[in-house]
Amino acid sequence: MASILVVCSGNICRSPVAEGLLRRGVQRRFGIDAPGITSAGTIGLEGSTATPESVQAAAERGVDISAHVARRLTDPMIEGADLVMCMAAEHRTAIATRVPPALDRTFTLKELARLLEDDAPASRLPGDALGTRIAVAAAARRGGGSINPYDEDIVDPLGMPLETYRAIAWELDEWIDRLLAGVFGPVPAGVAGEGS
After folding, report:
1. 47 Cβ neighbours under 8 A, 6+ residues apart
2. Least crowded by CB within 10 Å, which of 51, 82, 94, 136?
3. What's the pTM value of the predicted model, to 2 decimals?
4. Tens-of-pLDDT digits for all 196 residues of the chain?
5. How far is residue 182's CA from residue 194's CA, in Å, rounded to a whole number?
6. pLDDT for the residue numbered 30
7. What is the largest CA-CA distance in the chain?
8. If DSSP codes are grouped into helix, strand and coil, which group holds residue 6?
9. What total number of domains does the chain contain?
10. Is 104 exposed, middle or buried (0-12, 13-18, 19+ CB in 10 A)?
11. What is the pLDDT at residue 125?
């Protein structure tokens, strides 16, 4: 089964919310056959819970992350993931430094969504495997496609007011929807809007 690893810094704000939203999105599409979704932090606060603001902002978007327990990123986590989705460019750089062969399957969320949106619609065949779409994105990145170094990061809301967490959760939800459409195609009929 395919697996997706979501990475931020502490694994208490951005990545738990993104993990929850992404899990909801793939489960809506694939049910029990959905790819596995986990998260970790480059400086993960091992054993910590998600911040109360993250829990509330996620809940307001229909996702329960109250049981989240932070983990520190390890090389085996990186090596075992089919896709490593980072919240910021600094996380992608850290992973490429630690496990260089993982670079072709490591992207920021915004980068990957844009690269896949640029891919010709004709190549988005039903049933495209996650690995195939990631390879397409890696080739596009090597070719200079849709790179925007000024808008790659999801801002870290740690220490900010609840309104900032809500804005980040909204942003994550929007970009994850774009990413899922780019990887797996349109939402199947009868699935759109459920639980939103």
Report:
1. 69, 70
2. 82
3. 0.90
4. 589 999 999 999 999 999 999 999 999 988 888 899 999 999 988 999 999 999 999 999 999 999 999 999 999 999 999 999 999 999 999 999 999 999 999 999 999 999 988 775 544 444 457 888 899 899 989 988 667 777 899 999 999 999 999 999 999 999 999 999 888 877 766 654 544 4
5. 20
6. 87
7. 45
8. strand
9. 1
10. middle
11. 45
Q: φ, ψ for residue 58 (rounded to 5)?
A: -65, -45
Name the amino acid, one letter, at 168.
I
Active site amino acids: 8, 14, 119
Say if 188 falls within a structural domain.
no
CATH of the domain at 28: 3.40.50.2300
| Burial (Cβ within 10 Å: 0-12, 13-18, ≥19) of residue 161 | exposed
Assigned token pair, 51: 């911040």
Task: Name residue 7's amino acid.
Answer: V
CB neighbourhood size of 149 (10 A): 8
DSSP state of 5: E
In a domain, 192, yes or no: no
Structure tokens that stand for 18 in this block: 């993104």
**In the numeric block, which tokens belong to residue 161?**
């007011």
Q: Which candidate, 146, 139, 136, places its Cα nearest to that of 110?
A: 146
Place of tokens 């969504």: 113
The pLDDT value recorded for residue 188 is: 62
